[in-house]
Amino acid sequence: MDTDEVIEQLKRASSPSSLPGMKRFGIQVEHALGVSIPDIRKVAKRIGKNHTLAQRLWATGIHEARILAAMIDEPSKVTANQMDRWVRGFDSWDLCDQCCMNLFDKTPFAYAKALAWSRRKEEFVKRAGFALMACLAVHDKQASNESFEKFLIAVEKGSFDDRNFVMKAVNWALRQIGKRNRQLNRAAVRKAREIQRFDSKPAKWIATDAIRELTNPRISRTLD
Fold this sequence. Notes:
The protein is mainly alpha-helical. The protein contains 14 helices and no strands.
């Protein structure tokens, strides 16, 4: 299947009437077709893994083609340079999150990039750092607690950023780390209480929301 065939499949699955709704949810629609994530996944399943095609789809600049690229790319063939190049192209939270959860968190560079990007100033690059932390907390079952304790230091530093898409990603990372196991739950709640004391509106929201979830007995019962 070549690039043009894939784009044609995406166009057939598109619903341009959904674009205003996407825009209301903070998604850039200038280069979007209006294809739902489930429909993009169906196309990805038909294609299978294909690193070369993923590069070509990304190069089209089409919003859904880029999400699809992350779904079909092969993590073992992804380079650190590719990750940096793609992250600079993030212009929407959904593209950022789909790349992190479908591809970036499966590469050997994931932990280093999460920390590096969390220190960047660009809104969606910084979001990607914390989104990657959240995705790793969910998907990497073999990682040590130490890796995520390092992320909590980055969460504290990022908690002062009042940009909506960054703030929500910092909160997401904190909550997912705290739901990983009992030891990290205690560490995340402890860090959240420290953050909560800062004279910062975003920090207080990030911490308060995380504490509410992480101290819920329902969550506690699921922890090892």
